[in-house]
Every structure is written in structure tokens, then in C-alpha cells.
Amino acid sequence: MAFNFGAPSGTSGTAAATAAPAGGFGGFGTTSTTAGSAFSFSAPTNTGTTGLFGGTQNKGFGFGTGFGTTTGTSTGLGTGLGTGLGFGGFNTQQQQQQTTLGGLFSQPTQAPTQSNQLINTASALSAPTLLGDERDAILAKWNQLQAFWGTGKGYFNNNIPPVEFTQENPFCRFKAVGYSCMPSNKDEDGLVVLVFNKKETEIRSQQQQLVESLHKVLGGNQTLTVNVEGTKTLPDDQTEVVIYVVERSPNGTSRRVPATTLYAHFEQANIKTQLQQLGVTLSMTRTELSPAQIKQLLQNPPAGVDPIIWEQAKVDNPDSEKLIPVPMVGFKELLRRLKVQDQMTKQHQTRLDIISEDISELQKNQTTSVAKIAQYKRKLMDLSHRTLQVLIKQEIQRKSGYAIQADEEQLRVQLDTIQGELNAPTQFKGQLYIIKVCYARFYLGFHMLLHFYTANIMIFCCSSSLVFFLAIFLFPFSMCLLFQTR
């Protein structure tokens, strides 16, 4: 389901849009080129354009035509939204075209056809004359229902073929606005996206053969080298491959072939056939839009989209610097975006799992490192003590027979002061001594208490209970006297 805004017919050349996958947005103004028989990286001569979102069909999405024509040079809106999480890249190509007062989305040479289509659609929806009685009003309501649904045929006149209702018609209710990510790559980066109707595992296993095949498509020129920038899995067992071509000159310098030049070569009829034989279903450049192009896109709502909804979509844009609103037409497009989102969610989850494993490994390494650091600290402390002992012995031997010097005497006084403070009753050693004494007395009292109760139990078994209870009550007082200190 290509999303097309009416394509002005070019004066020469072939259509530039490749066959888009189902439900995809074809591209923002792909261009047709006139190219020679040999492969050249000179700037192509562009003489015509297709619709805003790609596709070579003459049938535009909407009924807007220009009133009067003006001749001038303007800039197209690139080669496609593409595929992926951001649903591809908004790509640009410089082109010459005739514009009308109706704007970028008008179609000068197709004005009579679109006018007839507009009149026929209006007749089918409002005033059919098929039966000539009150049943025409019922037929009009049925045609309106088909137009709202986006499918079916609207019969309105016996002498005129019925109107074909598709989801691209402006009356279709199944429309919404989503957001696509805008690429930040320059045309000089030379990135071109090729969508293969193959699985990613198959592409990766045959990557070298794929590069060689693409090199043959480029004419087998030895000065050209095909490089794969990256691959990504798409829904429906498709794979996106991003490539660029490096051209080496005889003097040893090299440069990347511009994306628009490489794309123009791929869009030649014979080259496109070779790419289709390799399994390519879609090709597009991945280049950024200029601010003027973005402004022009945002100012004009797509045909069939309510301007109020379009303005609200611009207001609700979560990141206007990186995202741009794009229309979604029909359930197939909604399903496609849902599949792409699900695919990207799985890829994000896989990446999060990898990051989690890396974090766990780093935590293990950190624990090991902390243990080693503590071990090395202990070794350092031990070596410091041993080194200090060696220095002391060496100093004693070196100064053997010498009189004590003033600084040594001062150091001895300081050490004696510290030793006296440590040995004071209120300091560490005194408190430690008190703790030791208390512990010894407690240990002794506990054993005496144990023996006392054992003896009293034996006495109780042999004598009266009065003596036993007197001994029980008098013994704690004797223990209190025993545990008094100082």
C-alpha cells in the first residue's frame, strides 16, 4: 500500500521509485534520472519527479490540482521513509520540476484526469443518477459507507465506470498520524539502504557473496569497493542492509560515493532488474532533510488528513528535532508499524540482556579486584614493617659507638611520653587491664556459683529444706562482695 500524493509527470527518464513493500511509505519525492550506459559518479541529470511518498502510479492521494502554472526550479523531498524503527530515512535529491500554484503536491499534466475523478467521486457520494428514483439516495449512502471504509466501487451513472474506493481516498476514516525518526546522515556519507526478502541469518552467512554481487552490479570497477555498514532484521523475514561505496582515485586518495549518485545508479531499469534477482525489494538513500524541506512538509497536511489532526500531531510531537509526523492509512500500515515496533522491542530487550550480563561480569570483576586490593594492602603493610625493621637495624649498626644526638634525645622523650600515656590507668592499657580483671572475676564467680548450686542440691537431697533456702539467698550477697573492684 504505497502512500502517494500525486506525481507530476517528468519530461523524460524513468520512474525512480522502487517497488515498495506492502504497507510501506514509498518516499518523499523520489526522482527519475537520465543516465548513460556507463556507470558514472558524476551528478545525475534529474528531469522529473514522482509522488511525495514514492510510487510511480498517476493516481494521487487527494484531489488537489494547481490553478495556473509557474516555471521554476525547486528541491524535491528525497527518496523515502524506508523501514526500521524510524521507518526509514527521509531522503533528499536535487531535482528540476515544474510547480503549480497548488503547491508541491499538485500534478499539472494530470489535472483533467484528477478533475474528472473528483467530479465522479463527488457524484457517487452525493448525487448518483444510476436508477433515477429514491433508490439513488440509498445508493449514495452506500457509496459513502464504502468511501469511509476505503474499499469497494461506487456506481453513480450507467454511462460512466464506477469509482474505485481505496484507503488512499480522502474520505477514508481509517487514518492516523504516527512519528518517524529522521536520519542525521549527510549525502556525502553515501549510505544507501537495500531491503532484501531474506532472513538476517542468510544475509550474514552470505555477506561476502552479496558484496561481490553488488560489485558486479556496479560494473566490476576495480576502483570501487562495496562496504556493509550494518544489517537489521525486519518483519516478514526481511532484512535491511546499509551499504556505501568507496571510490579510489589513481593518486591514492579515496572518497565515498554520494548517496544520491549511488541510488540513481541503482534505479536504472537494468540495474534494478539485477538487484531484484538478488532479492532486493526496496532501495533508498538515508540522508537528512534540510530545514526548508521539513518546514514545507509540516506546513502542508497530507491529502485526506484533517488539518486539525495534522496540527495536533505537530503539537504532540515528543521530539521535534528527531521525529516528524507521518500519516498511517489503513490497518495494513498499522499492522506493519506494530510489527516493526515489536521487532525493535525484541532487539532492545536483547541489548538490555547483553548489558545486564556485562554488568554482572563487571560486578564479579569488581569484587575480585576489591579482594586483591585488600590483600595487596596487607602485603604492603607487612613489607612496610619489615622495611622499617631493616632500616632500624641498619641505623643501629651505622651509629654504633656514636654519642646520642640532640634530635635522637628529643625523639626518645616523645616516645617515652607516648608510652606513658598508653600505660596510664585511664588510657588503653589501663582499661584493657580492668577488662581482663573483670573477666577473670566473672569466670571465677561463675564456677563458684556452679559448684555452690551443685553442692546445695546434694544437701537438699540429704537434709532439711530450710538450710538449702538460706544458702540460696545468702550466696548472691557474697558474690557481690567478690566482684567489687578497687
From TrEMBL:
Residues 301-432 form the Nucleoporin Nup54 alpha-helical domain. The chain crosses the membrane at residues 457-483. It is found in: Nucleus, Nuclear pore complex. One of its GO terms (molecular function) is structural constituent of nuclear pore. Keywords: Membrane, mRNA transport, Nuclear pore complex, Nucleus, Protein transport, Repeat, Translocation, Transmembrane, Transmembrane helix, Transport. GO terms for biological process: mRNA transport; NLS-bearing protein import into nucleus; nuclear pore organization; protein localization to nuclear inner membrane. Coiled coil: none annotated. One of its GO terms (cellular component) is nuclear pore central transport channel. The keyword Transferase does not apply. It holds the Pfam family Nup54. Signal peptide: none annotated. Its main location: nucleus. Belongs to the NUP54 family. PANTHER family: NUCLEOPORIN P54 (PTHR13000:SF0). This is Nucleoporin 54.
